[in-house]
Give the backbone structure.
Amino acid sequence: MSSVFIILFGLIGFTFGWFVYSKFIAEKIYRLDPDYVTPAHTFNDGIDFVPTNKFVLWGAHFTSVAGAAPIVGPAIAVYWGWGPALLWVTFGSIFFAGVHDMGALWASTRHKAKSIGALSEDVVGKRTRALFMVVIFLLLLMVNAVFGTIIASEMVDIPTSVFPAWAAIPVAVGIGVLIRKQFNLLLISIVGVVILYFSIYIGSVMPLELPGDIFGLGPNGNWIILLFVYAGIASSLPVWLLLQPRDYINGAQLVVGLFVLYGAVLLTLPDVTAPMINDNLADNTPPIFPILFVTIACGALSGFHGIVSSGTSSKQLNNEKDARFVGYLGALGEGTLALITITAVTGSLYAANAADWNGIYSGFGSGGASAFIAGGAALITEGWGIPLSFSETMLAVMVVLFAGTTMDAGLRLQRYIIQEWGSIYEIAPLKNNIVSTLVAVFSCLILAFGASNGGYPGDGGMVIWPLFGASNQILAALTLLVISIFLMRLGRPAIYTLVPMIFIIFVAFWASAWYLIDYYRGEKWLLMALSLAVMSASIIVVLEAFSVIGKIRRGEKLDVADEQA
């Protein structure tokens, strides 16, 4: 069977999602109002609250939420077979992720651009907020530790990615300044992408490595330290100077990369050599149900998206109607990345036949970002005649830049939460930008270096991946629950958010329980403690939320203030 079938199935589904389903949700359920004055205008401070062109905001939002997860998750999950992965990516993007992301952006905009954690206090109750923020903080902790490990690994394994990855920073700053001065956006975008791809060419012929063992932690550990130093600085700068333009130009670079990859599939027409359903699973392989739904999080549904939607994007939304373009289309963009990942790691250009594929995917956990880079580079080289070294560097840089922008946004969001805690509990030092950033950075480093996989210092990120996936989906369910209650309080249908919420909370808690037993058997006490903390806090949030739903259905007066305009 040709890989084109996978592409067509997903893209036809996404087309329906954008032109039909998202339009229905935006107009009939969320009822996006173009005349509503968004918090970006009401609280415009030039730092966090900045009215932003929807195309720029889409790029910033898309690359912040995407990271490396829609690559790593699908590239691992195809071990069960490409069929289940394709179905979850396609239907998850249409009916789960797009509704979730657009809903979180809309609900936050209607509540002074509050984060989903703070918003839960207005919608559900005060006790919910504290627990919700604990879940969010722990998830951000995992996200940053995981992506720091992924970036470091790619920079060590593919040193040609080092120069273009860091060259993107001054390019982004320049673009941020030019956008601020209202230069032509299209011209800026073209020039920026050309410079990025020229830096990729330089990197492909000029690999770079760290000079010596800087911190005595080996090359991976050293890169992790340097990455968190950078991310700490970047997360403290105004959004328009680095975060927003870096995310935007990375988004433009990804659009070009996706065009090249999808075009390569059409030019080469590779066959699918991986099984649709893999019956040759290794011993101790996790069960496909429910683990598939937490292995592929980003690319189908992700709680992290709700944090970004309500934490940064809602502060930059120029017009409420842009929530559909930024939120729903951002989710579909991530779905297209997951879709091409499935194609790249299952086609004949990656593994010539079924035997070769089974040799590469010898057990659960095989694949990941390295499989995407190898399979995608083979596609590009065969289809477009581009040298393999350039193709590998281009895709490695794509992974690194995406993960890097997620780290920037993740640390900024962690800082927000720490500062909120400082205000709530009147701890003055935590309100300070520098102190709160340092707390965020050091907590991430402790997790990255504390949860060792036995390979090298700082390899804890990939050990955390299963825990991150399960916790991420629990948070997505909680976010859908808050959106549902907000809809119910407005007297609108909530079934379109409640049904996805019920399904995902069921599989996410089931997966968490499965991994909890696995951590206990493996004596992984740190991961067990984190998992228990997330599950315990989430259960209480769910109970509080269902109590509020009961009161709404009975018509009782609620003890929470609704700030929606």
The CA atoms of residues 81 and 276 lie 5 Å apart. The two ends are 53 Å apart (CA to CA). The chain has 22 helices and no strands.
